[in-house]
Specification:
Layout: E1 2-7, H1 15-29, E2 33-38, E3 54-55, E4 58-59, H2 69-78, E5 81-87, H3 95-103, E6 116-123, H4 131-146, E7 149-157, H5 167-178
Parallel strand pairs: 1-2, 1-5, 5-6, 6-7
Antiparallel strand pairs: 3-4
Helix pairs in contact: 1-5
The protein binds flavin mononucleotide.
């Protein structure tokens, strides 16, 4: 399967990157085709809600903003599995992820039907921590809206142990990746 991973952390060697790498190791070990996009490295402008992308109320896949989303739209449409990986920022997703997600407004929502989604998050505050549950709820609702299958989420606290050293979490991520 084609698996597109969207890393929303600005830290390329941080906790979230480590969790995602383990997930993708698992997926690649089963022969899946994996691709990672570091959202931080892409120029992604905020959606201006101009509706220039819509025709008869439907997304055309063409946004009037000239930036890196033009190249990312085909990658999203080709993906059978989408993995969002990001650190929790203020009980929510970081701006990098939100900018990307908002710009999916330009696509025909019908084209998401049947795609699978996984969610990987890391967070600093000790458990119990409501952040990961809040973003899981958000992405479950997005999946319901788009006809996507929300396949699972893994939230890991990095507060007392960096994810890079958290063997249990890395194994969980890998196992999740093997099962996509
Ligand atoms: C701007 C900012 C906001 C954050 N907000 C939260 C938060 O609301 N809850 C929490 O538990 N941790 C929060 N954190 C901590 C990060 O989620 C945590 O350190 C995460 O593991 C960092 O991942 P990274 O190494 O991939 O960047 C925040 C960190 C930053 C920089």
């Amino acid at each position: 399967m084609n698996c597109l991973a969207l890393l929303g952390s600005p830290r390329k060697d941080g906790n979230t990157a480590a969790l995602l790498a383990s997930f993708l190791d698992g997926a690649a070990s089963k022969g899946h085709n994996v691709r990672t996009v570091l959202l931080q490295d892409r120029k992604i402008l905020p959606c201006t809600s101009c509706n220039g992308c819509k025709k008869d109320g439907k997304g055309t896949g063409r946004c009037v903003l000239a930036d890196d989303m033009a190249a990312l739209y085909p990658a999203v449409l080709e993906a059978e599995v989408i993995v969002h990986a990001f650190p929790i920022y203020w009980w929510s997703m970081p701006a990098q992820t939100k900018l990307f997600q908002d710009r999916l407004y330009a696509l025909d929502y019908g084209l998401f039907s049947g795609k699978k989604m996984y969610l990987l998050t890391t967070y600093g505050g000790e458990d119990p921590n409501s952040g990961p549950g809040i973003v899981e709820r958000t992405f479950r609702d997005i999946c319901d809206f788009l006809g996507m299958e929300f396949r699972g989420s893994l939230g890991v606290c990095s507060g007392s142990l960096p994810v890079q050293k958290n063997e249990t979490a890395l194994l969980q991520a890998k196992q999740m990746g093997t099962g996509i």
